[in-house]
Amino acid sequence: MPDRCHSCRQDFWPEPGFYYGAMFISYILSAFFSIGFVLFVHWVLGWSTSGSFFALILVSAVCFVYVFRLARSIWISVNVKYQPGIMDQEKASASKRYG
What we know:
Blueprint: H1 20-44, H2 49-79, H3 86-98
């Protein structure tokens, strides 16, 4: 993960332990997905319970990085206000100051 956003220069590491809350978001996302996945595979597709959980482990291992990044994105969007034109405003004020 980069230290700053390439577009708006937002600091992605505002303080140590900032992404601790993302762990809870990741847990919630993973739990709901896991329950839904196992129920679907077991009841709709008719797989055995152990087969359903084995498939869940395979899918979870592949999707772990995506859930990790999604949880961090959700966490920073909850804590940092998005300001779409902030870079344009800073460039305009800098050009006024420096001529």
